[in-house]
Design goal:
Layout lengths: L14 H10 L13 E7 L2 E7 L5 E4 L11 E3 L4 E3 L6 E3 L4 E3 L14
Antiparallel strand pairs: 1-2, 2-3, 4-5, 5-6, 6-7
Length: 113
């Protein structure tokens, strides 16, 4: 029997916990409370969304589900990015991939959806 201990990565032991925690977290900010040059997880028609309002007040909405493995991204106010706590993917405030392992951007959301 061959054991591949080198495939075990301690940093990935909390992936399942992060996946479940992100899906159940209900502490979302109000879209109305979002200031210019600020991002947050909000609710749009009862669904989670990542919202970023640029310095001119333009609003960008993205699905907060990471396109790599489905964990919920969180807003990083220092870098103005959406960061995945599971495997480290990072997305621009408008959803484009900044750093993998994700290869696809976050899905854009229309505020009327």
């Amino acid at each position: 029997m061959q054991i591949h201990l080198h495939l075990y990565t301690p940093a990935n032991t909390d992936v399942a916990g992060q996946l479940v925690k992100g899906k159940l977290d209900m502490r979302d900010q109000s879209l109305d409370a979002l200031k210019n040059d600020e991002g947050a997880v909000v609710r749009i028609n009862g669904k989670r969304a990542g919202a970023y309002k640029d310095q001119d007040g333009n609003l960008y909405l993205v699905d907060t589900t990471c396109t790599h493995m489905g964990c919920e991204v969180k807003w990083n106010s220092g870098d103005r990015t959406w960061d995945c706590p599971c495997h480290g993917s990072r997305f621009a405030c408008t959803g484009e991939v900044v750093e993998g392992p994700a290869k696809e951007p976050l899905k854009k959301i229309d505020q009327q959806d």
